[in-house]
């Protein structure tokens, strides 16, 4: 094979090798960019999932607190009703006592 022809083939092979390397580098950059995008998406999804989980836990805690509040209020209402009933039962007794004390005080002054 003549020397100029060999030289042309070598140049062609070098050019082809350069093109292959450039294409490989471009593919590598695209792959890295895609991997970064995918990692960003995974992080964002994880963040959204964590936020949703936190919101669910917060809502569950609020519901639990509200249930406890209602239980306490019901207990307080029952206790208040019991105290009112006991006070009502003693009204006549207290009125009699006050009248007696008043009469004794009036008699003591005369």
TrEMBL record:
It comes from the Archaea. Residues 41-61 are annotated as: Disordered. Residues 42-61 have a biased composition (Basic and acidic residues). InterPro entries: ATP_synth_B-like_membr_sf, ATPase_A1A0-cplx_hsu. This is ATP synthase archaeal subunit H. It comes from Halosimplex aquaticum.
């Amino acid at each position: 094979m003549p020397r100029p022809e060999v030289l042309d083939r070598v140049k062609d092979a070098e050019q082809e090798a350069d093109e292959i390397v450039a294409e490989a580098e471009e593919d590598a950059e695209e792959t890295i960019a895609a991997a970064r995008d995918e990692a960003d998406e995974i992080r964002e999804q994880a963040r959204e999932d964590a936020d949703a989980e936190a919101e669910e836990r917060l809502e569950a805690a609020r519901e639990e607190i509200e249930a406890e509040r209602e239980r306490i209020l019901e207990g307080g209402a029952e206790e208040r009703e019991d105290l009112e009933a006991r006070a009502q039962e003693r009204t006549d007794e207290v009125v009699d006592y006050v009248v007696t004390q008043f009469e004794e005080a009036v008699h003591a002054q005369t």
